Amino acid sequence: MPTGFGRLWTAQTVSSLGDGVTHAALPLLALTLTRDPMALAVVTAAGTLPWLLFGVLGGALVDRWDRRRTMWVTDAARTALLATPAAAAALDALSIPLLAAVAFLLGLGGLFFDTAATAYLPGLLGRDPALLERANSRLRGAQTVASGFAGPPAGSALLALGRAVPLLADALSFLLSALLVRSLPALPRPVPEARASLLGQARAGASYVFRDRVLLGLALRPAVGNVAFLAVETVLALFAHDRLGIHAYGFGLLLTAEATGGLLGAGIASRLGRRLGTGTALTCTAAVEGLAILGLAAAPNPYVAALALAACGAGMGATMVLGPSLRQTIVPARLMGRVASTSRMLAMCAAPLGAFLGGWLATAYDLRTPLYAAAALLLAMTAVTASMTSNRRVEAALQAAAQAAAPDIPAPREPARRSAPDPV
């Protein structure tokens, strides 16, 4: 791995830890101000709105800008942004509108940083598929540990020291990330496209996803998956309490089992891809997710439920390494930001539909119905996308990308590891 990857990995891990702190602290801060469920929902929803409103346009901007500069400037801006609620907390001037605005702007910063990081990584690694899988495995694993295991408990603990403390901790994480990203090697920009409007470039990026069978299959998995997973998440706490007899502490352990499975799945993703082929591995991980949710719906006790959630997490973890790695390998650098943001936007738009579906099915039928519906949806999605991301299609896409890479991508730092032909 190039030495620069270590700095990028550290920067994203530190930033993910801060995200986990804020993810726990913002709702708790809101809870100190109001008990109105709608007001609390506004703070939670505000962080997702940037992806729904500006997802594709943000990707088009990232494709116009220098990716490294976009990342460190965004993190520097988020450092300054968090100073406002921290000062308001210290002065006892916090309010729900302020927290919602902060959540929205942090989400907007996340849109630009995540999209730029996704677009920057292939250039850093010379678009080598094996290196990309290893890199995404490490990034995904570190993100799971930092934002899933360490961040939320740290956020709750820091809040006990003072309302401004978790916000300042997150600000520090963004500052460290900005400094690390600033030290990364500068990469040449992709060959610019013919001058077009921002909206036209955004539309071209979205069209590229929908016209390509492999990319469309990769985008459908998280989109349909989010409908299913949010349907489950909406009723999971109630299902665990009423059907499995799990209370608050046990529910936390149940979620930990899922996160542990996700960490395992991210770790073995590359091995699965080599053993089965990327296309077949993606189909198998999607099937594991569906079957695991089916097992969760039928679980007779908490232990079976924990195993089912761990299996589901493993499938999700592997998918979230293999899918993005393949996308980063086959998409031209000039379109990477738009393609990544289009896929992410589809997934984010699907989430509210899943939450509504889960609530409606639980109300109209019973608590197991959303889980059975989610399993059926995941298995149907697996069947539909299996041919779209088959090994044959994936290999054809990789070969086409290798042939087109020479004029589009700068030479990597380690020629011995390259999979693409030399530039002509």
From TrEMBL:
Residues 414-424 have a biased composition (Basic and acidic residues). CDD domains: MFS_MefA_like. It is found in: Cell membrane. The chain crosses the membrane at residues 38-62, 98-121, 157-181, 218-240, 246-269, 276-297, 303-324, 345-365, 371-389. It comes from the Bacteria. Keywords: Cell membrane, Membrane, Transmembrane, Transmembrane helix, Transport. Its main location: membrane. Residues 214-424 form the Major facilitator superfamily (MFS) profile domain. InterPro entries: MFS_dom (IPR020846), MFS_trans_sf (IPR036259), TM_effector (IPR010290). The keyword Transmembrane helix applies. Residues 405-424 are annotated as: Disordered. It is a multi-pass membrane protein. The keyword Transmembrane applies. PANTHER family: INTEGRAL MEMBRANE EFFLUX PROTEIN-RELATED (PTHR23513), MAJOR FACILITATOR SUPERFAMILY ASSOCIATED DOMAIN-CONTAINING PROTEIN (PTHR23513:SF6). This is MFS transporter.
